[in-house]
Amino acid sequence: MTGTADSSTHPPLPPTPEDDPVAWLRLLRSRRVGPATFHRLMGEHGSAEAALAALPEVARAAGVEDYRPCPAGVAEAELAAGRAAGARLLLHGRPGYPAALLDLPDAPPALWALGDPGLLARPALALVGARNASSLGLRMARALARDLGAAGKVIVSGLARGVDAAAHEAALEHGTIAVMAGGVDVLYPSENAALARRIDDAGLRLSEQPMGAVPRARHFPARNRIIAGLARAVVVVEAAARSGSLITARTALDQGRDVLAVPGHPFDARAAGCNALIRDGAPLVRGAEDVLETLAPTAEPGLPLGTSDGATGLHPGSRPSDGPTDTGGRGAARSTASGTAASATAPPGTPTTPPQDPGRAPAPSPPRAPERGQPQAGGASRRAPEQERATRAEGDPPGEPGKATGDRQPGDAAPPTAALHARILARLGPSPLAEDQLIRDLGAGAEAVAPALLDLELDGRITRQPGGLLALA
Fold first, then answer.
1. CB of 283 closer than 8 Å to CB of 330
2. pLDDT tens, 201-231?
3. Which of 389, 404, 428 is the last residue of a domain?
4. Closest Cα partner for 330 from 354, 314, 345?
5. Domain of 45?
């Protein structure tokens, strides 16, 4: 009976549960194979083993000689490290894999989960915001997480300092998911190590990176797409004009999720991103009731569909009206704040072909709101630098960071400039300096300095200390 299993000459069948996890990880960790290329190879060859066998020839056809897939020992070591940490490997399409991610064209082929994977089956909302959040922003994050958790929602965030940490802390009682940019066993930032261990007991830590992987700048936009993909909606509490939180918001819009924002004072640079989202039509959030009311028409399958105002259907799953396009309501948020997703869903190329840049498509007329889980086909009337920075590269091989085709670093964008980095480093020393004082000394706006500080911190050139202090690493 077993001797006839491989005798068929028919085209390969789709992946089966019998696919070896070692072969699965070998394919995923191979050089120049990221999520999109992985799914393409699996679709073409039917199994990870067959894709691995074909990979050298595919690379040769693309002009890459002497290509070797990831060695089996690397994948076996990763599996052993996962077992030692008590983590569970979730494979795309297998039992336990989050259904919310299955509609993403670049869904993670494999996820490491540490904690309670049952939370992935519950309805989730994402709370994101500034690392250097104000005291009011932190209070708002805690209140939203606590009240939305009490309403049965799992809170998803990125375990960063500031708003993320406040949201996780307040949601522990009801369930929270922390999506990490590094390995699920790497506690970053170190100041949230105690919180991460508590999440192990009362929540879930999730990562697509290999065990032991140290987070790098290019990993954070990829992490943000998972945060947005897991959630039915993303609530932005505080965000500067150029921040990772806005990357998450625009990724959510590309994925067909709702985006809501908490307003802030116009003079506070930490609220500039939220105020811009509201200006472009994002629903304004004053408390958990506003979030639940906005999502109520499509909160659960089987509920009657509706709209929040009479002119347009704004929520995924609602039917747009046949009348004129609403140019001032929430429907405008979908047309002005969303990025172009049509090119992002195009079939990926060979392992050496860079992914398509969604920011290079022309901007057509505003589209209708997408159905749940379907990408938008229209373009944005305004393009923001963070959209360019949100472009995701294919995965890197272990030990060869930064060599993936199409990899874009956060520092590639014009702001912050190298000159600003140099000015910041020149004013910092071993003795801690308050961030507010640094901004005043530089004479630059917080909206320009904040992303520059983040880049330098991720590059390991500066460190943050309690009380909003900065120092050279």
1. yes
2. 999 999 999 999 999 998 999 999 999 999 9
3. 389
4. 314
5. 11-64
Residue carrying structure tokens 């200006």? 279
Statement to judge: residues 331 and 456 lie in one domain: no
The reported pTM is 0.63
Average pLDDT across the chain, whole number: 76
pLDDT grade, residue 369 (50/70/90)? very low
Residues 43 and 150 in one domain: no
Q: Which amino acid is at 69?
A: P
The CATH code of the domain that includes 219 is: 3.40.50.450
In this structure, the answer to whether residues 452 and 380 fall within a common structural domain is: no
Q: Is the pLDDT of residue 408 over 80?
A: no
Q: Which amino acid is at 244?
A: G
Highest mean pLDDT among 276-285, 293-302, 379-388: 276-285
* Full strand arrangement of the beta sheet holding 462-465: 433-434, 469-472, 462-465
- Single-letter amino acid, residue 428: L
The enclosing H or E element of 279 equals helix 272-279
**Measured distance CA(92)–CA(35) in Å, rounded:** 10
Domains in the chain: how many in total?
3
- Six-digit token pair at 79? 């599996």
96's CB contacts (< 8 A; 6+ apart) are: 88, 90, 113, 117, 120
Element (H, E) at 89: strand 88-91
Are the C-beta atoms of residues 348 and 35 closer than 8 Å to each other? Answer: no
* 146 vs 152: CA distance, rounded Å: 10
| Cβ–Cβ under 8 Å, residues 388 and 381 | no
